[in-house]
Design a protein that fits this description.
It is a single chain. By secondary structure, this protein is α/β, with parallel strands linked by helices.
Length: 333
C-alpha cells in the first residue's frame, strides 16, 4: 500500500475489511465490513464518482475547466465535487430537498453549486435525476461541450469501477476465502461490479441483495415484479426501476430489511465496537446476518460499510424523529 499519495484522488479505494464481532459471534460466521467510509470523501460513492470522471477523461469528453452535473441523494455529489475540485472542474449537484441537513450542509461547505428540488417519483419529469439531465444539456450548449452528466444510475462506468477495484480488493483481502457478498443497491454499481468480479473468480460465491422497505428490488429478485411495500428512512438505496448498472448484477437471492432491524444493529455497533455507521450500512449488516444464518456456521460473508452516522445525525440521534417513526432509540439518548 502506497504511503504517500500525490493527490486526493489517489487516496480513493484500498479500504480495509473490518470484522464485525457482534454479528460474527451471533451467526458463528466471519462477517466482514469493507470500510468504505474511510474513502477521502467519506463514502463508497467516491469510487463511482472517480470511475465516471476517469472514463469521461479517457474519452476526451471533459477537460480542465469543464462542468460535471449530477442528480444524487448526496454521497455521489460529495465525491464528484471533491474530485472535481482536485482536478479543476466545476460541479453542479441536483438533490431532493428531503435529504438530511448534514448532506446539504456538506455539499455547500465544499463549494458545490447545489440545486435542491422537490422529491418526486422517477416517472415525474421533474424527478431530480431527470432534472439534472435537462440541466446538463442546457449547460453543455453554453459551455461549448466540456460538460458531462454523470448519470450514475445508468452509466456503467460505475459498475466497472467496482469490478476493477472493489471486487478485486475483496477477493485479495479474503485470499479468495469468501462464501457470500451482500449489499443494498441504489444505482446498482456496487453489487453489479463486486458481484461480477467475485463470480468470475469463484462462481459458488453467493451474491445477495439487502433491500430496504419502500424499494421494489426485493420483489423483482424474488417474484420478477417491481412492487413496492412499506417505506424507509434510509437514503440513496432502494429503487423503483431496474438501472443499467443493476441489470448486470449476478444476484442469487435477496432479503427485505426494515428500519427497526437496521437501526438496532447501527446502535449496537456504536456501543459495542466503536463503529459509527450510516443507515444503509445498517441495512447491509442485517442482510449479512441473514445470509450468514442461511449459509451456516464457519462461512465468510462480506458487506459494505457505506458511510458514517454523522451524515444522518438529524435522523439517527433525534429522539423526537425516532419516536414519531416508531423506531428504536439508542439507550444513551
Amino acid at each position: 500500500m502506497n504511503s504517500i499519495y500525490n493527490n486526493f484522488v489517489e487516496a480513493i479505494g484500498n479500504t480495509p475489511l473490518i470484522r464485525l464481532n457482534g454479528p460474527s459471534k451471533e451467526t458463528g460466521c466471519n462477517i466482514l465490513g469493507k470500510a468504505e467510509f474511510l474513502n477521502p470523501g467519506g463514502s463508497v460513492k467516491d469510487r463511482a464518482a472517480l470511475a465516471i470522471i476517469k472514463e469521461a477523461e479517457e474519452n476526451n469528453i471533459i477537460k480542465k475547466g469543464g462542468t460535471i452535473v449530477e442528480g444524487t441523494a448526496g454521497n455521489t455529489g460529495i465525491g464528484l465535487t471533491l474530485i472535481a475540485n482536485s482536478k479543476g472542474y466545476k460541479s453542479i449537484i441536483v438533490m431532493p430537498e428531503t435529504q438530511t441537513k448534514e448532506k446539504i450542509d456538506t455539499l455547500r461547505s465544499i463549494g458545490a453549486d447545489l440545486r435542491l428540488v422537490p422529491a418526486k417519483p422517477y416517472k415525474d419529469p421533474d424527478n431530480y435525476i431527470k432534472f439534472s439531465e435537462k440541466l446538463a444539456k442546457e449547460i453543455y450548449k453554453k459551455n461549448n461541450g466540456n460538460t458531462i452528466w454523470a448519470n450514475q444510475f445508468d452509466n456503467t462506468a460505475n459498475l466497472n469501477g467496482h469490478y476493477n477495484n472493489t471486487g478485486k480488493e475483496i477477493w485479495n483481502q479474503t485470499k479468495g476465502k469468501i462464501d457470500g457478498f451482500i449489499c443494498s443497491s441504489g444505482t446498482g454499481g456496487t453489487i453489479a461490479g463486486v458481484g461480477k468480479a467475485l463470480k468470475e473468480k469463484n462462481n459458488k460465491v453467493k451474491i445477495y441483495l439487502s433491500d430496504p422497505k419502500g424499494s421494489a428490488l426485493y420483489n423483482f429478485i424474488k417474484f420478477n415484479e417491481l412492487k413496492i411495500e412499506g417505506n424507509s428512512i434510509t437514503e440513496g438505496i432502494g429503487n423503483s426501476r431496474i438501472t443499467a448498472n443493476f441489470k448486470e448484477a449476478p444476484i442469487d437471492g435477496a432479503y427485505s430489511i426494515n428500519d427497526h432491524e437496521a437501526l438496532t444493529e447501527i446502535y449496537k455497533l456504536i456501543e459495542n465496537e466503536g463503529l459509527c455507521l450510516g443507515t444503509s450500512s445498517g441495512i447491509n449488516i442485517v442482510g449479512a446476518i441473514k445470509l450468514a444464518k442461511e449459509l451456516g456456521p464457519g462461512k465468510t460473508i462480506v458487506t459494505i460499510l457505506c458511510d458514517k452516522s454523522d451524515r444522518y445525525h438529524s435522523k439517527l440521534f433525534n429522539k423526537e424523529f425516532l419516536i414519531i417513526n416508531n423506531l428504536p432509540i439508542p439507550n444513551w439518548l
